Amino acid sequence: MSKNNDKNMSGFDRFRDRHPILLNSALMAVALVALGYIALLFIDVFTSHGQQVQVPDVRNLPLEKAISILDEAGLRWEISDSTTFYENYPPGTIIDQDPKAKSYIKKIRIIYLSVNAMHAPIIPLPKLVDLPGRQGMATLRAMGFKHVTMDSIPSEMGGLILQVTVDGHNVAPGKPVSVNSQIKITVGDGSIVDLNPEQVIDPEIMDSIDEELYQEAQKNYEEEMKAAQARAEQEARNQAAQEKKDQNKKSDKDKSKDQDKNKDKNKDKNKEQSKKDKKN
After folding, report:
1. pLDDT one-digit tens code per residue, 66-83
2. 107 near 74, Cβ under 8 Å?
3. 94-98 vs 104-106, strand pairing mode
4. Angle at Cα 208 formed by Cα 206 and Cα 212, nearest 5°?
5. Which domains does the chain have, with CATH numbers?
């Protein structure tokens, strides 16, 4: 009977019965090869293997137009910087891009755009009147103001700042001013004789201490900024402490009200009890 069964079995069935381990190993090898091939196909699709596009040149273009061009090309983009202001570029213009224009990249790669800020930084104008003119210029340049000029008028106070104008207008100290504004410092030339000549400053001496004044002005500015930050932090702490104090007062008042209510309830209960006692 077993001989008849062996005759009826195919060659594959006989091989499977005689060599099960070898057959399973062969099937596993085939499965691994198939899985590796499928994985390679997925990797090619995911990484866009062999699919490269040329990066368009969007420099010097408005941000909206640059985005439209990149979207049409099927490219992804992100704004890497939009805080720096360049005076020689229109606001909102693409300053630089990465990767560079006309290079070839895969579509999944991101194009990073550097965009010119919409306006120049705004800084409060410092108090400059009665300071030496050179020190005033050094202070403004240390703060980032780019267009600072100085002229002189006849005055008893030689070399000292008499007036500061911004774009041709008088501006009070502390008012926010763009760093690209035209600032003019007017100093006295000392041509008018004064009974107190010690206040007249020799221009040659002023020229000899330009660098020292610049360093001093920059140091003073940094100290003022630190002091302003410290004051702001102190005010925030004071405000938080006051809010906590007000909250505690409110909670104390609420507790006092609750105690008064409880006292009133107890009084009412005592009155009712006394009435009952009298009746009894």
Report:
1. 999 999 988 999 999 888
2. yes
3. unpaired
4. 90
5. 52-115 (3.30.10.20), 121-270 (3.30.10.20)
